Structure formats: C-alpha cells, structure tokens
Amino acid sequence: MWVQVEVFMQTLVAGILLGGxxxxxxxxxxxxxxxxxxxNLTHGQLMMVAMYIAFWxxxxxxxxxxxxxxxxxxxxxxxxVGLQKYLINPVLKVESILPHNxxxxxxxxxxxxxxxxxIFFTSDYRSTPVDYASSAWxxxxxxxxxxxxxxxxxxxxxxFCLSVAITLLLWFFLAKTDTGKSxxxxxxxxxxxxxxxxxxxxxxxxxxxxxxALVACAGxxxxxxxxxxxxxxxxxxxxxxxxTILGGLGxxxxxxxxxxxxxxxxxxxxxxxxxxxxxxxRFAIFVAALVFLPGGVASLLKSKKLTK
Length: 308
Prior knowledge:
By secondary structure, the protein is mostly helical. The chain has one domain (about 1-235). The protein is built from twelve helices and two strands; from the N terminus they run H-H-H-H-E-E-H-H-H-H-H-H-H-H. The longest helix has about 35 residues, at about 1-35. The protein is globular. Belongs to the binding-protein-dependent transport system permease family. LivHM subfamily.
C-alpha cells in the first residue's frame, strides 16, 4: 500500500518540478502571442541558442549554468529584439496572399538557427558535468517520521525554484511597471492602447525580446539536467505550442497551469505506461484540449469568474 502511494507521490512531485520549467517556456510563447497575435515557431530554437551560450560559458570559463542566467537571457533579449525589428516587423507590414506569412518566417528562422548550430557545434550530444548533477534530498529530512520516502533531485529542485522566482519577477514587471502595463494594454486591445498613447510597435519589439529572454532562462535551468544538441529546439517548440493551446491563447495564468498539467501528465504517463509513451501522452492531451476544451484552461477560469 505505502509502496504504491510512494510511487504515485514521487511521480506527482517529479511532474510538478518538470511542469514548473515547462510553464516558463510556455509563458514566453504566450506573451508573444498575446501581444503580436502570432505563434512564434522559433521559440525552442531560441532556447537551444541560450543553452549553447550557457554550455560554452561552462566549458570555457567554468561558469555554472545557473549563473548564466545573468548572461544568456540578456543576449537572447537583444537577439529577439533584432529578429522582431528587422525581420518580423517588415513582414507584418506586407499584405500577402498568405495570412500567416509571419508564422512561416519564424519557422524559417528556427531552421536557420538549428542548421547553424549543427554546422558550428556538430550534432553531438553535450552536457555540463556539474558536481551536483546526481545530488538528491528527501522530504523525510524535513518531516521526520513520514511513512512515504520521496527523493528530490537537487538540480531539478533548484531549477523549479528559480523558475518560480523568474515567474514572480515577470508578474511584478507586468503588473507594477509602466512598460509592463503598456504590454498588457497592447495585448488586450491594440487600438485602444494606441489611442491612450502607447507606442504599440515598441511594445511588440520589447515583448518579443522578453519572450526570447524567458525561454533563455528556461534553457539555462534545463542545461544541468538535460542533454544539448541542435535539434533540441524543435522538441521544445512543440512543447511550448502544446502548453499555449492547453492553457489558452494569450493567457499567462493559463500557460502556467498548462505547463504544470503537461508536466504531471507526462510524468504519470512515463511511470504507469512507459517512458517511450511520454511524447504520446503529450499529444494526447493536446488533442483532448482541442476537442473538449478549445478555449484552454483560461476559458474555465473566465467562466468561473462570470458565474460568481
């Protein structure tokens, strides 16, 4: 009995830790979608670039991947601003037969970044052999006498806590600063924001850079616990897209909940069905969300508010 409970709780905790990192990835894509109304399909490739930056910082200068949070995100913010200002903005202004040509552009940018990484760094798998990679701690260390022994990986726990801290900083930025309020206004109603004096074009540029910086943070947090290779970006672009749909298009709170739901669902699938079935579970919940909850988790939150 206790063994089954222990396995379930261990799986649940692992899913929550994974979901916290997934949420950080999803928030970046959701933020860009909310302001610019496009799906950024180069999201995962930007994360891959940040991971390579953190990797080489570790390899050349022995800088811990977590300390690269002060290096990679600012660089990716600058890269995101450049991509938005000089590539995406000009395409947004051009009328085309294809209504979503800017989305196709992001796919092309992602392919370019992935192939450049393959050319410069080869397709070899890389990792950062940090000293604490295999370290763990137990919940029983905090609550003596508990009948359930749950182990927590130290790097997973640290990455989750830093992810929560970054999310709280983002909330403070969006809720308390003038730039953050302008971004929220642009996301809610672009025309009304322009009438109120908001520089919408500038907010779009900043938002794309902010989304790139957020996914760069996720890359730095994943690096101590994940292998790095050029095609990694495609996988995480799909994960971010699933989270965006699951949480609700443009909803930051929905992205957080969507990330947690996806993380727990993947963890449960890997434990009770099989490791190879985790990606299948990811797309199963994606299809289920499209069929049964097309508005995502955000639609449920809105409906509860309306019924009160």
